[in-house]
Amino acid sequence: MPPFDGAGAFGLARYRPGRSLLHLLHPAAKALALAGLLAAAIVAPPPSELAALFLLLNVALLSWAPSALPSAYRTLLALAPFLLLLVAIQSVGVPSVRWGARLPLGPVVLFGGELASCVATLLRYADLVLLLGLWAATSRLSDLAYATESLSAPFARLGFPSRAFSLAITIALYFIPLLGEEAERLRKSQAARGLDFRPRGLGLIRAVRAFLPLLVPLMVLALRHAENLARAMEARGYSSGGTHTRLAVHPVRPADVLVPAVSLLLVPLVLLDPFRNVDSLLRSLAL
Amino acid sequence: MNARKIAVAGALGAVAILLGATPLGFIPWFSGASITIMTSPVVIGAVIEGPVVGLVVGFLFGGFSFLHAAGLFGPVGPTDALFLNPLVSVLPRLLIGPIAWLVYRAIERLGVPVALVLAGIGGSLTNTVLVLGVIGLFKLASWAVLGGIAIVNGLPEAAANAILVLAVVAAWKRIEYGRRRGARLE
After folding, report:
1. Which domains are delineated in chain B?
2. pTM here?
3. CB distance from B158 to chain A under 8 Å?
4. B30, B76, B156: residue with CB nearest A78
5. In whole angstroms, what is the distance from residue A82 CA to residue B117 CA?
6. How far apart are CA A49 and CA B43, in angstroms?
7. Which 168-207 residues of chain A touch chain B by CB within 8 A?
């Protein structure tokens, strides 16, 4: 079993420090804008709107977080084999896209419509990866907790534990490196006692039992840390009700309203298919 | 939610994320196949502290797999593309904890060890059935293939999760079960 490092795994999170419009956006506004753009990428009719979004995201990444662009493309490259299989399943041989010119590709003959559908599916996935890459490059992991609390605050009146929810996310993010170190310490100490993590034969129970001396102490340690933390919180007077203060406060500025509003408006806009004339032109060319 | 529930949700959420980000969450089996055990912290949270804690840990697990699929936490595998859809990666994971808790409460009177095993199986199968079900509804794979995955992968995973849930909760709550009941020091 190779050594692992929880802190190291999360050191790979893609935040790139900066002072751009996106970096300075309120975490909740950024999360709303992300949700709007994700929805737009999922519902956009193919392929012109998806291609426009792809171009826009590349320009945004180049402008605001250029160093994040290679890692986004590396991810796309890693996903490529499965994506190609997926587009083949979803697009090739589907009656609704069997239109247009026949394109012989070795032993296979593709229709223009099938090719267009393949390109659209690939663009949709590329848009999702670039979009999340852009968000991660301009957001700290701690922004997740802030955004969750701000966005779920209206539901607190209905009994939703928005502050508790956000605090649990914050605790999880701070516990990951700590538990990563504990896991590595446990792995080394169990290996020193002669524990072998390699699978032996087909036995499922045997495979799981080999990992129990590592997983059970790790989870019990996590629960013990949680209990100590809970005692410390209660000793300091923490209560889930009442008002609380924050160490970092993000004031809401006009851009924090404008950016998510524009991105959420994109969803009905792409559904109206503003580039349908371009799509028709491409379709006639394919025919 | 009191301080204890919040802290347990955070700690087990961290365990779920750590299992997904490191080889710890993938128990190697045979011929390169591995069993994933990321649902066990969700079930453990639900059984120990209730369905809301299970829901929060499930949200952290699902949110992590969504962000991980986009390559935000290191290298991705080819099948991670499926988890770029939050309906596949996040939504099914929210239900693991509440369903495992329901199974545990329904069977608790027959004996806590039995209830823990069945809660582990229930939580894991909820994950398998809902994730594969949403993939099938989006027509990302054929139902025949998904059925095969559910049997070949889902059932061993359910068994592995059941063992882990029983071992961890029994160790935490000092429940005696099976032949080995620990050393008697007195």
Report:
1. 3-173 (1.10.1760.20)
2. 0.79
3. no
4. B76
5. 35
6. 42
7. 168-176, 178-180, 183, 197-199, 201-202, 204-205, 207
